[in-house]
Amino acid sequence: MFATRFAPSPTGRLHLGHAFSALTAWTAAREADGRFVLRIEDTDFTRCRPEYEAGVFQDLAWLGIDWETPVRRQSDHRADYDAALERLRDQGVLYRCFRTRKELMALAGGAPHAEDPGDAQAFAGGPVDANEEAERLARGEAFAWRLSLKAAEARLGGFHRLTWIEDGVEPGERHAAPQALGDMVVGRKDIGAGYVIASVVDDAAQGMTHIVRGVDLAPITSVQRVLQALLDLPTPVYRHHRLILGPDGRRLAKRDRAATLADMRERGVSADQVRAQLGV
User: Per-residue pLDDT tens for 85-110?
Assistant: First the structure.
């Protein structure tokens, strides 16, 4: 059975971009007589807030979207993600990265559009030597767990065999090319496994057959495909949709204080008007 999800992070109120993604996924599920799941991806405990989670439910209900219950919250399943992180460690495909945010910004050229240069920019610095690592751990230094593409490729016998089906605007088979994102952060000393691991674990646990999301997330599919292969998880079909852009031609983002659905509702905009504006 067709099954898809909308998985927001409760770090702010939803805007038109979120509405379009949620409506697109919900509509796809309804048209296929399938399942629609709402998942709360609250792994970032420093920015996630209960009021923002409540806002997600309120905004989606206002749009006329319904979903399966109970809702899965990632904060309730940390042990599952940390077990996956530990499995990757045991496979020898992770290493500790001690670079500071300032150092990563310098490596990324200080890119102002990058929310986290260490995650969003290609990184292939590799691990420090064993002696330095032991000294840094003894000092209690913070670190991130990075996925070593070199080690992962060797373990999997190459990335060329890792494929998935894209059935969006340009349907067809895709081949994994994770090198574009470099050795991506998949966990941290203080919080354990991060979003990219939690997402593939949850998709498998919830039986997701299709991942419907914005085209801005298309590049990360290669990394998720690598993780699926390493963790023996199924590979869903991916459908990447267009983005809703602001007046400046950039995609809407919480950090840019994009107008929220709550703001629009308070101004008297109706849900029907939002759906008509989005063409859904």
Answer: 999 999 999 999 998 767 766 655 54
